[in-house]
Design brief:
By secondary structure, this protein is α+β, with helices and mostly antiparallel strands. The chain is built from four helices and three strands. The protein has a three-stranded antiparallel β-sheet. The mean pLDDT is 90.
């Protein structure tokens, strides 16, 4: 990721009048990916509405290059520094970006497998009688 990527991203978002961005990611096994990037020009839309990929907010429909830049930036600069969401049981989450403030929030959920351990003892002769 070159050092001008953030500048390109912010300039692109501002030039499209975009106020908020949501990036959804998911992973497991040993891989993970950005699934979609949503955006809106409406500063009053809450992030929950933007998290729904079926709505009319896909940034790739407006500017696929910008959408890919944001996905790459989030993957390399933000998501590589948080809890492991791409290995083992994996995880998923959302990156919320407030364009005007230049801030982000990551809501990351990881799947955790737990072990329950039991000890059983007995006598082989007694077990054999059953």
């Amino acid at each position: 990721m070159d050092k001008n990527s953030l500048e390109k991203i912010m300039f692109g978002l501002v030039s499209h009048g975009i106020k908020k961005v949501v990036v959804y990611y998911e992973g497991g096994g040993d891989s993970g990916a950005i699934e979609y990037v949503n955006a809106t020009q409406d500063p009053d839309i809450n992030y929950d509405e933007l998290e729904n990929w079926e709505q009319e907010y896909l940034l790739g429909d407006i500017d696929i290059v910008l959408s890919n830049l944001i996905a790459d930036y989030c993957q390399e600069m933000l998501l590589n520094d948080i809890e492991d969401w791409w290995n083992n049981e994996g995880g998923r989450g959302y990156v919320h970006i407030d364009v005007e403030l230049g801030t982000y929030t990551i809501n990351n959920s990881i799947r955790v497998a737990d072990w329950e351990e039991y000890t059983h003892e007995g006598n082989l002769k007694d077990k054999n009688k059953k």
